[in-house]
Design a protein that fits this description.
disordered C terminus, mainly alpha, 216 residues, 9 helices, single chain
Length: 216
């Protein structure tokens, strides 16, 4: 009984910590990842209707945190509800069209964007103490200028949202993020670094093209 109460308190405190470290958007992204990985379903539409708290619990499970009985019950209940919603209104899978070169480039860029989003989560978890390198990820995924234009477009859209929050232009957005202005500006700086690193990839590619091999 004592152990149960101790676990309940520990989980409640940990859940509050996750809620303070991650945005609502990150919680919804985690629901989609979690449901796809663990239940093999596409929850991209229904995730928006799930309680944000459920998303943070999914994060805890991803980090292999042992859940207390009450939180586990909440999790099981919401999984059941979400699976039923998906069953009742499945995300329409489009007919398999011919995949164009642009589609393939976009799909490859999306893989890298997924890792950049995870990098954002890690940055926030570290309370902005970590020093992520978008350029390393761009290199790891073999991104070239034909891919980085998709990544740059994503980064610019995200940056615009954080700029509105950090400048106070959108007060509701500022309140929703629940972060000090200084940290909101660090998020803007991160997306600026992504955009800058996309330009560096172009520069590196041009340098490689300019290398000539001299045959003796």
């Amino acid at each position: 009984m004592k152990k149960t109460k101790s676990l309940e308190k520990k989980c409640d405190n940990l859940l509050n910590w996750y809620m303070g470290q991650h945005t609502v958007k990150a919680a919804h992204r985690q629901i989609i990842r979690h449901m796809k990985k663990n239940y093999k379903v596409n929850a991209s539409e229904q995730a928006k209707t799930a309680p944000t708290r459920f998303g943070y619990i999914c994060m805890m499970l991803s980090d292999k945190v042992e859940l207390s009985e009450s939180i586990k019950e909440f999790y099981d209940e919401n999984v059941k509800i979400l699976l039923q919603k998906i069953k009742d209104n499945p995300v329409a899978e489009p007919d398999k069209p011919k995949i164009t070169i642009q589609d393939r480039l976009s799909m490859k860029a999306d893989e890298c964007i997924g890792e950049l989003e995870y990098q954002v989560d890690e940055l926030m978890i570290s309370d902005f103490k970590s020093k992520p390198s978008p350029l390393e990820l761009l290199k790891k995924f073999g991104m070239k200028p034909m891919h980085t234009r998709f990544i740059k477009k994503w980064a610019e859209a995200e940056k615009e949202e954080w700029e509105k929050a950090s400048s106070g232009e959108d007060k509701e957005l500022t309140k929703a993020y629940g972060l000090p202005i200084s940290k909101l500006k660090k998020m803007v700086a991160y997306y600026n670094s992504v955009i800058d690193d996309c330009s560096k990839v172009k520069s590196l590619t041009n340098k490689k093209r300019g290398v000539k091999i001299k045959i003796l």
